[in-house]
């Protein structure tokens, strides 16, 4: 004869198993990762970050995450700022610490890609605005960026200056790869849409670049 089944004990074990499974989430700390959790909404994950997509060249046709400046510049999401197949142009020289750009005619009216370092974020944005740039996206200098840059906040340099264009930091090594790819293809710019509304897109369906870890 089989021993009697302890129903209460089985229920306790079942609930413990369900709790354990519901507590497991796949999380990766990569700099440009969405930090995804099963069941979370995209708008909760991305918080105040903004996304843009490259539509040409094909080698870069992915969705990219940027973090807007914390306390200077204007908003990428204002009603007056909409870029559809606009130009993302790497600045020459790339640090943008002086307004003497070698390709300043190419920057006018476009989104300007510059590198971090040598001067403040505010200085870079002001110099881009001075030559007619519509917005500035700041990137890491090389491909060695790690998890720490996920926590970078572009803050004001405490001077009495400001800028009237949007500014943001491109998380991860995306900026390095964008620059390198454009140079390899001998292209002066990429075509982008900015901003991209991902509110109703599931996190796992966002078309992130393949070189990012999940």
From TrEMBL:
Chain ranges of the PA domain: 85-176
SUPFAM superfamilies, per database record: PA domain
Superkingdom: Eukaryota
Protein keywords: Glycoprotein, Hydrolase, Protease, Signal
A GO biological process held by the record: proteolysis
This protein's record includes keyword Cell membrane: no
Signal peptide stretch: 1-29
Record's keyword annotation contains Coiled coil: no
GO molecular function, one term: peptidase activity
InterPro entries documented for this protein: PA_dom_sf (IPR046450), PA_domain (IPR003137)
Pfam families in the record: PA
Protein name per Swiss-Prot or TrEMBL: Putative extracellular region
Organism for this UniProt entry: Aedes albopictus
